[in-house]
Write a structure and sequence with these properties.
By secondary structure, this protein is an alpha/beta fold. The protein has twelve helices and 16 strands. The strands form four sheets. A seven-stranded mixed sheet has the order 7-6-10-11-12-15-16, with helices on both faces. Helix 6 links the parallel strand 6 (176-182) and strand 7. The protein is elongated, with a radius of gyration of 32 Å. Mean pLDDT is 82; it is low at 1-13, 18-45 and 412-467.
């Protein structure tokens, strides 16, 4: 009897052991099968965290507001597609803004901004630059910071100069350039970059500087080197300009006076090369007397022809596009908190493919940002896409009209104090009243000509004498 009970007990234990083994094996198989699904679910439900560190007050507050508006539109669009994005805003003009930044949950590590150099210097002095991944909205970073401590998500001055030089040289075939620039630090830096870019391309450059409050017609005269054809009221100024395009690193508001000064000396055929300041001043605004500006070209960092449903009905400009595309970029970038600087650069280049409005942006081997800016022209609508064939036709017409004017042809002659295109008096700032001014710097000086001729190597036929 005892042996029987012992045998039964041993059999029960063996059967229980078999059941347990089978159960464990089944559980293991279920875990193996479901593991990938669980992993995919975790990846899909990962919620990105993005910070915008921008000034909420002061001179940059209006721009910051537009960036923030664009970012929120991107967030709303993603949420409609089932992607939850956590967007935080830190006012860099608040006294405790660095404390507010560090008080955010630890998931907030990708930061767009700052927008002003002073806030960036604060990040460096406090050591916060190393705690986050900053993609700044600055056109340059100090020293060796870029690609190591922070990255740029913004076009540089070099990008702007390269854009206009490449267009004029490669698309228009121009190899001689002039520069007429204010003498402020911002403009002088642009001029230095332009000269260096021209030197690398083996292009010639003449330059002159002017000061505000002085007569522009006097200051630009040595650069255009005009002579006079005829006498009295029928006298026609004939510029000896040795270049075909001129770089003008001034604001758009200054361009009207500059054009009138050129026209006073008979020069209305130059291709006028500007900066992003022109695009930002003209975007979304009609341009009166647009024919005066038809040879003005300038770079832009966003595609005005882009059609994005989230921005439909909104007044779009570069700053709105910047905020919208930065959120798209940051979400596509993912978590880069533990990555090295070269790895961040590689990830950023892949993430930039998601951008939908901004001009193409990339980072080189050193982590320096380069943006392939888009060339625009001035039109009655303000900013217009570059139509190369139309632009070349307008330029050829200008040259033809100038040739007729300089040989006393059919183009109507106008007094020198009247705008040749609009028939209205020239602005007071460009009146031909002589005044003693210092001779502007010109490099190099064009060789004087012994007979009237137009610029751009265009030789006019000799005037016929009549009996």
């Amino acid at each position: 009897m005892i042996l029987l009970r012992l045998s039964f007990a041993m059999h029960s234990v063996s059967r229980l052991r078999t059941v347990l083994c089978f159960t464990l094996l089944l559980s293991f198989c279920v875990l193996c099968a479901c593991g990938p699904l669980m992993g995919r679910k975790t990846e899909q439900t990962h919620e990105p965290y993005v910070v915008l560190a921008l000034p909420g007050q002061g001179p940059y507050a209006g721009l910051a507001s537009r960036i923030l508006q664009g970012a929120r539109l991107a967030v709303q669009e993603m949420e409609r597609h089932g992607v939850k994005v956590h967007l935080a805003f830190v006012d860099t003009k608040a006294k405790d803004w660095t404390a507010r930044l560090t008080a955010l949950p630890e998931h907030f590590r990708i930061v767009g901004g700052p927008l002003d150099p002073e806030s960036y210097r604060t990040l460096k002095s406090t050591g916060l630059i190393a705690k986050y991944r900053f993609f700044t909205f600055l056109n340059e970073l100090n020293g060796a910071d870029e690609g190591r401590l922070a990255w740029r998500f913004f076009p540089s001055s070099q990008d702007q100069v390269d854009a206009v030089l490449n267009f004029a040289t490669n698309q228009l075939g121009i190899c001689s350039y002039g520069v007429f620039s204010p003498s402020d630090p911002y403009s002088l830096k642009k001029v230095a970059l332009f000269e260096e870019g021209a030197r690398r391309r083996n292009l010639s450059v003449q330059k002159a500087f002017y000061t505000s409050g002085s007569q522009l017609v006097d200051q630009v005269k040595p650069l255009l080197n005009p002579t006079t054809l005829g006498e009295g009221s029928t006298a026609t100024p004939v510029p000896q300009t040795a270049f075909e395009a001129i770089f003008l690193p001034a604001s758009w508001s200054a361009l009207g006076g500059l054009i009138s000064s050129f026209m006073y000396h008979g020069e209305d055929r130059l291709v006028l090369l500007g900066t992003m300041l022109w695009e930002q001043s003209l975007a979304g605004k009609p341009l009166p007397q647009a024919n005066r500006y038809e040879l003005a070209v300038f770079p832009g960092a966003w595609n005005i022809q882009a059609r994005v449903s989230a921005l439909s009905g909104k007044k779009t400009d570069f700053w709105l596009a910047l905020g919208y595309d930065f959120v798209n970029f940051a979400v596509n970038l993912g978590n880069v908190d533990k990555l090295s600087a070269p790895e961040v650069k590689d990830r950023a280049n892949r993430a930039a493919s998601i951008m939908r409005i901004l001009a193409p942006l990339s980072w080189d081997g050193q982590g320096h940002a380069h943006q392939k800016l888009i060339i625009y022209r001035a039109s009655a609508q303000g900013v217009a896409p570059m139509d190369l064939q139309l632009f070349q036709q307008m330029r050829a017409q200008r040259k033809q009209n100038a040739a007729l004017r300089m040989q006393g042809g059919s183009e109507e002659q106008v007094p020198p104090d009247v705008d040749p295109l609009t028939g209205t008096p020239a602005p007071t700032s460009t009146a031909p009243t002589p005044s003693p001014v210092a001779t502007p710097q010109i490099t190099p000086q064009a060789a004087p000509q012994t007979f009237p001729q137009s610029s751009h190597k265009l030789r006019l036929p000799p005037r016929q004498s009549h009996p």
